[in-house]
Amino acid sequence: MPTPRIRVAVLCTGNICRSPMAEVALRQLIADDIVLRGRVEVTSAGTAKWHVGSPMDPRARRALDRAGLHLAGSPGGYADRAYLDSHDIVVVMTREHLADVRARLTNEATEVIMLRNLLSPGSNLDVADPYYGDDAEFDECLELLRRGGQRLTSVLRRRCDGGSYGA
User: Fold this and answer.
1) Could you tell me which residues are beta bridge partners of residue 112?
2) How many domains does the chain have?
3) Mean of the per-residue pLDDT values for the chain?
4) Which is the catalytic residue, given 12, 27, 141, 146?
5) Is 129 noted as a catalytic residue in this protein?
6) What digits encode the pLDDT tens for the residues 136-159?
7) Which residues, including other chains, have CB under 8 Å from residue 138's CB and lie 6 or more apart?
8) pLDDT digits over 107-119, tens only?
9) Could you say which of 33, 85, 126, 129 is catalytic?
10) Residue 67 maps to which CATH number?
């Protein structure tokens, strides 16, 4: 198995809903892709310290299970400067997350991408937080995250092949 060459971080605010769902969905897409398997490492964290060490929200876990995505996510973590600087790509859910990351990040080689820009380049739209919603909102959020993850795998494939990439 090739050594991971690309480190991807997925961020939301508390790291219990959007980012762990995106992490699991992206990890599954990578596991199913012969080009990416073993070459891309995915983690998730939050821009706030609210849920460090906590498991993902049970509603997020149920949404993943309903979608057939049974991989475990990372425990809640905090995206401090060292965490951000250690990644090649950081995917954020909102413009606020983007500002937080840019304020902390010192590694100029780290690319920061808003997830919705993978689907609609230049739109700068936020991924809505399902935290105060019901199961249907978690399912809708997960579907958006999965589609963004599918686009990101295309970016990652080009990068693994040594080609240019961007989103």
Assistant:
1) 90
2) 1
3) 94
4) 12
5) yes
6) 999 999 999 999 999 999 999 998
7) 17, 21, 59, 60, 62, 63, 130
8) 999 999 999 999 9
9) 129
10) 3.40.50.2300
